[in-house]
Amino acid sequence: MSYKNIIVSTENGVSVVKLNRPESLNALNAELVAELDRAFTEFEGDPETRVVVITGEKNFAAGADITNMVELTPDEARGFVFSPTFNKIAACPKPVIAAIEGFALGGGMELTLCCDLRIAAPGAKMGFPEINLGIFPGAGGTQRLPRLIGASAAKKMIFTGSPVTGEAALGCGLVDITAENPLEEAMELARKLAAKAPIALSLAKACINNADAMDLKAGLALETNAWASLFATSDQKEGMRAFIEKRKPAFTGE
């Protein structure tokens, strides 16, 4: 499938999505987000894709394209919001890693929050400047950010609109790893994950993603059922036999 605003490549189980609007610092517009939506629909059904890495050309994404938003009515703004696609990315059954360089602001930062893991350059600039435009993050920022770093820290970021560096983001848990070359680090991690059992990864992700929405009893029941179901997979047999035989497992996703 061809794209105009993103570049997609797949090799050795890892699909890389590169946001490709460098003239606008990869600012998100409706066309780019629609292409992300199509790409993730493809990834879900593609057995060759075991892990997805999202990155950007020079910058991750400097927010949404404001030029298309100024005169929106409330009803038009509701239709413009990126949440359906971002929710699809968050729910992707495969691990998703963000590799962040340069700016990750506004909607670009919200896109990173949809990913399972975030790797940033120490000097990356990350934040939510929407308050300075008379709005606030509207594609999951007020919901995903406090779940990640706590309510008070999230309020400080969103209320002030002040960005933080990748190094500071590591300190508050906003990113998981800092690296001078985030994409290289993300690819190394992605290749490791691509060698794991795909069904087990998918079910583990689903259980973790649902933890906040369930009480402990319901969450434990979900976990037990998902865990037990893995014993119907060939990968479980292969993994345990490989352990006993002291060799590396060869998982097939079956």
Care to describe what's here?
The protein has 254 residues and is α/β, with parallel strands linked by helices. It folds into two domains: 189 residues, 2-enoyl-CoA Hydratase, Chain A, domain 1; 47 residues, Orthogonal Bundle (Lyase 2-enoyl-coa Hydratase, Chain  A, domain 2). The chain has eleven helices and ten strands. The strands form two sheets. The protein has a six-stranded mixed beta sheet with strand order 1-2-3-5-7-10, with helices on both faces. A four-stranded mixed beta sheet has the order 4-6-8-9. α1 packs parallel to α3, α4 crosses α5 and α9 runs antiparallel to α10.
Q: How many E strands?
A: 10
Strand and helix order: EEHEEHHEEHEEHHEHEHHHH
Provide the number of structural domains. Answer: 2
What CATH calls the topology of the largest domain is 2-enoyl-CoA Hydratase, Chain A, domain 1
N/C terminus separation? 26 Å
CATH class of the largest domain: Alpha Beta
Largest beta sheet: strand ordering: 1-2-3-5-7-10
